[in-house]
Design brief:
three-stranded mixed β-sheet; mainly alpha; rod-shaped; 5 strands
Length: 288
C-alpha cells in the first residue's frame, strides 16, 4: 500500500503518520513521535538550565553591586575632606582676624601697664591720673567688644545647596528596564496556549494537563491531532536534570509513575519503568 508524501512521517519518510504535533504542525508515525517528544523534552531541560542560570545571576546581583557602593564611599570621603578643609580654612581666617584686631589693643595696653607700674613705684599719681587711666581701660574694652562684633560666619551659600543633587544613581540604560515587560508581553505564547493551560511540567502541586477538546473516538479518526498527555501520580519539577533521571520520578515520594493514558483511545494502562509501554487496546506507544 502506498501513501502520499503528505501522509508520511516527517522523520522517517516511509511510515504513515498517525500523530500531528500541535506545535510544529509536523506529522509523525507512532515510533518517531517518541523521538520527536524526546527532543522537545531535551530542549525543555535546556530552558530550565537557562532559567537556573538567570536565578543564580539574580542572586549574585547584590555582590556585583559592591563596586557601586565603593564609589559611594569614595565620594563620601571626598566630600568630607572638602568640608573639613573649608571649615579649617574658615577657622584660620577667624584666628587671623582676631590676631590683627588684638594687636593694637595689646600695644596700647602695654603702654598703660608700664605707666601704672611707674606711678606705683614713684607714688606720683593723683585723682585725675587714675580717672584718665580708668577711661583708657574702658576704651580698650569697647574696642575688644567691637572687634568681636565685626566678624560673622556667612553660611547662606551652603544653606541653598540642593544636597539631593550632589549624588545621583543613574541607570546606564534607563529605557531598557521599562521595555523588558513589554518585550515579555510581546513574546507571550500564541492563542492556542491561552485557550489550553500550560502543561504541568511548569507547575507544582497540580494535575497533568488534559485537553478538553481531544477526540473521543480517535480510532475512527486516525491520523489525528492530539496534545500529548500522560497521567501519573506525580510529575517531577524539572531542574535541568538529565532526561532519564526525571522520567518516572516523583517529587514528593520518589515513587514511579504507575499509569498512563493512551493519546488515541484514552485507555488507562499500567506504566512499567524501563520498559516499552504500549496501549493494551489500540497498541499506540505510551506518550513521553
Amino acid at each position: 500500500m502506498s501513501f502520499s508524501y503528505s501522509a508520511l512521517c516527517a522523520i522517517c519518510k516511509h511510515n504513515p503518520s498517525t500523530t500531528s504535533c500541535q506545535g510544529c504542525k509536523g506529522k509523525y508515525c507512532s515510533t518517531c513521535i517518541s523521538e520527536h517528544r524526546a527532543e522537545l523534552s531535551r530542549e525543555l531541560d535546556g530552558l530550565f538550565n537557562v532559567r537556573n542560570e538567570l536565578v543564580e545571576n539574580i542572586s549574585n546581583l547584590s555582590t556585583k553591586m559592591y563596586p557601586r557602593f565603593d564609589d559611594i564611599d569614595l565620594w563620601e570621603k571626598e566630600m568630607h575632606g572638602h568640608i573639613d578643609f573649608i571649615a579649617s580654612t574658615a577657622r584660620d581666617q577667624v584666628r587671623q582676624f582676631q590676631s590683627e584686631s588684638s594687636k593694637n589693643v595689646r600695644i596700647e595696653l602695654d603702654k598703660i601697664s608700664k605707666e601704672l607700674q611707674e606711678r606705683q613705684k614713684t607714688g606720683g599719681y593723683i585723682e585725675d591720673d587714675l580717672n584718665r587711666i580708668r577711661q583708657q581701660f574702658k576704651n580698650l574694652d569697647s574696642i575688644i567688644q567691637q572687634s568681636n562684633e565685626q566678624i560673622r560666619i556667612d553660611t547662606s551659600v551652603s544653606n541653598n545647596i540642593d544636597w539631593n543633587s550632589l549624588i545621583r544613581v543613574m541607570p546606564m540604560h534607563a529605557s531598557r528596564t521599562s521595555s523588558i515587560s513589554n518585550n515579555v508581553q510581546a513574546n507571550q505564547a500564541p492563542n492556542y496556549f491561552q485557550k489550553h493551560p500550560a502543561p504541568s511540567y511548569f507547575q507544582t502541586n497540580r494535575n497533568l494537563y488534559n485537553p478538553s477538546d481531544s477526540l473521543s473516538n480517535s480510532k475512527k479518526s486516525m491520523p489525528y491531532q492530539q496534545v500529548y498527555s500522560r497521567e501519573s501520580t506525580s510529575i517531577p519539577y524539572r531542574t535541568g536534570m538529565p532526561l532519564n533521571s526525571t522520567r518516572g520520578a516523583s517529587m514528593s515520594t520518589g515513587n514511579p509513575i504507575r499509569h498512563f493514558t493512551c493519546i488515541g483511545c484514552k485507555t488507562v494502562n499500567d506504566y512499567h519503568p524501563n520498559e516499552r509501554n504500549i496501549c493494551s487496546t489500540c497498541k499506540c506507544p505510551a506518550p513521553l
